[in-house]
């Protein structure tokens, strides 16, 4: 199978040029002007952007959480991602406390291997660390292609590890060339604020927000940086929301240490005023949406190179699932649907509104995740010899986000009626047409597991 993409404007994290791209089987084989080779399929990309497939390194599919499961599974979630131009995702395996990493891996392989439509990899969430788990961490890196280890400084009793376990994990991960990632919020502070609010009868979604003030995230982010520095381990803070946490990283990384930061599209676009609405449960996520000043700090952080990645933390729950917390905000399953719209949002809100350059857009939506998580250059760029994961994007097409037209398995959109300029038109996954004319051409099982190596941004 061969494909020739003609006349597109190719954008990578560093380049912006007009060229044709010739793809043979799953790989880009030639890039040049006025290519004339014959191909099984020719795509005219005149007036279109040609982008590397998006990589979302923070999604939760079929995730057991807060007494239910996130409503997108590997099939519906990766398909929705492809519709929006995200060709690869990294999802989270959750170790059950008291059980092994290998058992968790097996469970997640069953969820994903025959169901994924787009490509995927796993972070391993270590929720219970001991000497046996330490050995398994090494096996994950050396035998399973899983090189990033997720930790939670919150969700006590389910996912949280203590600082002693964190430091021990960091030492093992550092020794074997991996990366520790973190949900950095102070779980104990949050739990006590939740209890206080509930005792006063404050049960509405607004109190989810008020129980997780900025300091809870800033404190944990700073503490995580200190533990990384003490152990020499490289780290990655997921879903950063606020100025206070970013300033901790700004200050701490004046030392010679590696701390990568991810924010998510929602924290750049919407704010905590949503929690005052009747349907505020739709935006109950952790950490919560913040203030306008935090959005400004995060956009600036992207341009300053302090924030390297924009993911989604896609973790959808239907409206019925959200009703689990109708009388108690602490029982609302945390998370919202977002996997499909990240690329379009970042183009429309970021590039079109002059907040980031077009190269920065590619860097934060694809290239940096590939580099940080050991997939580059196979994923994350457009170059000869790399996987032909390509998005043909119409930069001028305006459309409106709605649950009636999205592909995520969720009966509402958290962005209903939002006007977006820029639309994913055609998507190729390893040279195969994945999305064309609004239809997904791939089937469950076509998505492949990405075995990852060491980060190319860590010495
Ligand atoms: O609210 C969220 N973020 N749900 C998913 C779990 C997590 O903390 O990432
Ligand atoms: Zn989290
Ligand atoms: Zn998450």
Low-confidence sequence ranges: none
CATH classification class of the largest domain: Alpha Beta
| CATH 4th-level superfamily of the largest domain | Metal-dependent hydrolases
Any idea how many domains?
2
Looking at the overall shape, the CATH architecture of the largest domain is Alpha-Beta Barrel
Taken as a percent bin, the fraction of beta residues is: 15-25%
Average of per-residue pLDDT values: 98
Q: Give the distinct bound molecules.
A: N-(aminocarbonyl)-beta-alanine, zinc ion
Secondary-structure-derived class: alpha/beta
The CATH topology of the largest domain is what?
TIM Barrel
Radius of gyration (CA) equals 21 Å
Q: Any overview of this molecule?
A:
With 459 residues, this protein is of the alpha/beta class. It has two domains: 2-51 and 382-397 and 422-440, Roll (Urease, subunit C, domain 1); 54-372, Metal-dependent hydrolases (TIM Barrel, Alpha-Beta Barrel), CATH 3.20.20. The protein has 13 helices and 19 strands. The protein has helices at 74-83, 101-112, 131-143, 163-175, 187-199, 206-210, 214-231, 243-252, 265-269, 292-303, 319-322, 342-351, 358-372; strands at residues 2-11, 16-24, 27-32, 41-44, 49-52, 54-59, 64-65, 68-69, 86-94, 119-125, 148-152, 179-183, 235-237, 259-264, 309-311, 390-400, 419-429, 432-436, 439-440. The strands form three sheets. Strands 1, 2, 3, 4, 5, 16, 17, 18 and 19 form a nine-stranded mixed beta sheet that branches. A hairpin with a 2-residue loop joins strand 7 and strand 8 (68-69). The longest helix has 18 residues, at 214-231. It starts with a strand and ends in a 19-residue tail after the last strand.
């Amino acid at each position: 199978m061969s494909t020739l993409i003609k006349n597109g404007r190719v954008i990578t994290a560093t380049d912006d040029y007009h060229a044709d791209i010739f793809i043979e089987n799953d790989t880009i084989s030639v890039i040049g002007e006025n290519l004339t080779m014959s191909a099984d399929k020719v795509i005219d990309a005149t007036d279109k952007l040609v982008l590397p497939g998006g990589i979302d390194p923070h999604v939760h599919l079929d995730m057991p959480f807060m007494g239910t499961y996130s409503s997108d599974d590997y099939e519906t979630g990766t398909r929705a991602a492809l519709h929006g131009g995200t060709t690869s995702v990294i999802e989270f395996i959750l170790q059950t406390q008291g059980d092994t990493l290998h058992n968790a891996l097996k469970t997640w392989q069953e969820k994903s291997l025959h169901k994924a439509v787009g490509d995927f990899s796993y972070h391993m969430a270590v929720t219970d660390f001991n000497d046996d788990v330490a050995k398994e961490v090494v096996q994950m890196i050396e035998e399973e292609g899983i090189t990033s280890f997720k930790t939670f400084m919150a969700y006590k009793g389910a996912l949280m590890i203590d600082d002693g376990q964190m430091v021990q994990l960091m030492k093992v991960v550092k020794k074997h060339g991996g990366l520790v990632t973190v949900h950095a919020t102070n779980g104990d502070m949050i739990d006590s604020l939740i209890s206080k609010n509930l005792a006063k009868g404050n049960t509405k979604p607004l109190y989810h927000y008020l129980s997780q003030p900025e300091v809870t995230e800033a404190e944990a982010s700073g503490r995580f940086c200190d533990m990384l520095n003490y152990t020499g381990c490289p780290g990655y803070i997921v879903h950063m929301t606020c100025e206070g946490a970013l300033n901790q990283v700004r200050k701490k990384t004046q030392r010679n240490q590696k701390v990568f930061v991810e924010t998510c599209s929602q924290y750049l676009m919407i704010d905590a005023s949503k929690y005052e609405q009747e349907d505020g449960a739709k935006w109950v996520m952790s950490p919560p949406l913040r203030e306008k000043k935090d959005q400004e700090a995060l956009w600036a952080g992207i341009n300053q190179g302090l924030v390297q990645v924009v993911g989604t933390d896609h973790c959808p729950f239907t409206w019925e699932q959200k009703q689990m917390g109708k009388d108690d905000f602490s029982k609302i399953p945390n998370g919202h649907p977002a996997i499909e719209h990240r690329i379009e949002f970042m183009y429309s809100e970021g590039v079109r509104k002059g907040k980031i350059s077009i190269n920065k857009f590619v860097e934060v939506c694809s290239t940096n995740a590939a580099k940080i998580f050991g997939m580059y250059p196979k994923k994350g760029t457009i170059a000869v010899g790399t996987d032909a994961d390509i998005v043909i994007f119409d930069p001028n097409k305006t459309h409106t986000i709605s649950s009636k037209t999205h592909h995520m398995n969720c009966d509402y959109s958290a962005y209903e009626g939002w006007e977006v300029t820029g639309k994913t038109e055609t998507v190729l996954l390893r040279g195969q047409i994945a999305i064309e004319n609004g239809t997904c051409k791939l089937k469950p099982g076509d998505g492949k597991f990405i075995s990852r190596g060491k980060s190319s941004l860590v010495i």
